[in-house]
Amino acid sequence: MPELHTIELTVNGQAQRRAVEPRQHLADFLRGALGLKGSHLGCEHGVCGACTVEVDGRIVRGCLTLAVQADGRQVRTIEGVSADGDVRDLQEAFVRHNALQCGFCTPGMVMAAKELLQHKPDASREEVREWMSGNYCRCTGYHAIVDAVCETLAARRSRPGASS
Ligand code: FES
Ligand code: FES
Ligand 2 pocket: which residues have CB below 6 Å? Predict the structure, then answer.
């Protein structure tokens, strides 16, 4: 039995203190210990992006990040950003464009797109395609996903007070 390590972190605004195995990855911890199953596990090798979550405001692969590496950090998952309304416009655009079929990739897609919306508000369609290329979808063919992200970017840019 491996030695357990106690970690303290904030997940979706709530303080958590848990004992974890040193090799447990963050996505497994979020799903298993906290019941946050919106972060999906596909490849568990850092390839598909289904496990994408935020740590201290930047997206990471939950399957490549150890739970112990999240000690002392702020973690947000699709559950948290959905509840806060941060991505409501993006989620509505996904629905309008039929940008999901089975939905397995969708939480990771939304988390990845959220970061793009925050940090690259002037992104071109080509840049959106490049940014989202790290997240795999087996169903949609990607066009509708890119359409949804581009529409959300444009809508945010046209908001009163938008800097660009
Ligand atoms: S499950 Fe993490 S990248 Fe695929
Ligand atoms: S909607 Fe099925 S994997 Fe993307």
Answer: 100-105, 137-140
Q: How many helices (H) and strands (E) in the chain?
A: 6, 5
DSSP 82: H
Taking the C-alpha atoms of residue 98 and residue 89, their distance in angstroms, rounded to an integer, is: 14
Task: Please report which ligand is nearest the Cα atom of 60.
Answer: 1
Q: Could you report the per-residue pLDDT of 70-116, keeping only the tens digit for each?
A: 999 999 999 999 999 999 999 999 999 999 999 999 999 999 999 99
Ligand 2: residue whose CA is nearest its atom 2: 102
The pLDDT tens digits of the residues spanning 43-78 come to 999 999 999 999 999 999 999 999 999 999 999 999
List the chain domain ranges. 5-77, 87-157
**pLDDT attached to residue 76:** 98
Architecture field, domain 5-77: Roll (3.10)
Ligand 1 pocket, 92 CB below 6 A?
A: no
Mean pLDDT of 12-37: 98
How far does the centroid of ligand 1 lie from the alpha carbon of residue 146, in Å?
20
| Ligand closest to the CA atom of residue 61 | 1
Q: For the domain 87-157, what is the CATH code?
A: 1.10.150.120
